[in-house]
Amino acid sequence: MIPTFLKTAGFTEPDVPLYYLVTADGLFLVRKTGLFASVTPVGGVPGLEPQHTALSLRFGRIPRPVMERIYGFFDWAWRQWQSEAILFLYYSPATAEFLLDAPPQTIYLYRRRGRWHAEGRVTYSALPRPEGCIKLGDVHSHADLPAFFSAQDDRDDCEEGLKIVMGRMDRAVPDTAVSFVTGRRRFPLRPLDALEGFALPTPPPQLWMERFRCDYESE
């Protein structure tokens, strides 16, 4: 059997002619002969069974009342400023309950032809987790744009968890896109695999609206 070594900070090269080296960049095969020494990436290990990437969720679908609270906050932000917004999603393993909270967030408005327009970005700060809960993920809106994961989302979604986008807020019922990020990989999900259906927006709590700020930029 070919020996395997981990390349940690204190790694020293072993005195063996052939070995696998597990590094931050992946798995490599190291060979040393009388003619050459090589380090080559390994796409698979001969003799072992294959394994494909996979994801299975171990929590239930986001309930309709929770989805309608999400819808209500995003609908409010859209009607007030035609802007995006964000919510954090928490989960209690003990009770299987889903909770929402709005972080302090700022949208950016610019003036053009006498009217204010949303710039299309939201900045936000952290929140403490509710007691007994884990942060399951976050939900953000795309105003009147479709629900999809943009290149900016790919850069921002470094935190593992469930990611939900709600778009087409200008329509009677918005659309949604869902994914789960883990191990630096985004797993696309069908909305109905993770969310219950929803129809009517629930008005947002006063605290959520108070945490929503506008930064008015000069024309």
Low-pLDDT segments, ≥5 res: none
Largest sheet: 6 strands, mixed
Strand fraction band?
Answer: 35-45%
The gross shape turns out to be elongated
Number of strands: 13
Structural class: alpha+beta
**Total number of helical segments?**
4
What is the mean predicted local confidence, pLDDT?
A: 93
C-alpha Rg, in Å? 24 Å
Percent of residues in helical segments? 10-25%
- Terminus-to-terminus distance: 69 Å
Secondary-structure element pattern, one letter each:
EEEEHEEEEEHEEEHHE
Give, in spatial order, the strands making up the sheet with the most strands.
6-5-9-10-11-12
Structure description:
- The protein is α+β, with helices and mostly antiparallel strands.
- The protein has 4 helices and 13 strands.
- The protein has helices at 64-81, 151-156, 191-194, 206-210, and strands spanning 4-6, 18-23, 26-32, 37-41, 86-92, 97-101, 105-112, 115-124, 134-141, 161-167, 175-182, 185-189, 212-217.
- A 6-stranded mixed sheet has the order 6-5-9-10-11-12. A 4-stranded mixed sheet has the order 1-2-3-4, with no helix packed on it.
- β11 (175-182) and β12 (185-189) form a beta hairpin.
- The N and C termini lie far apart (69 Å).
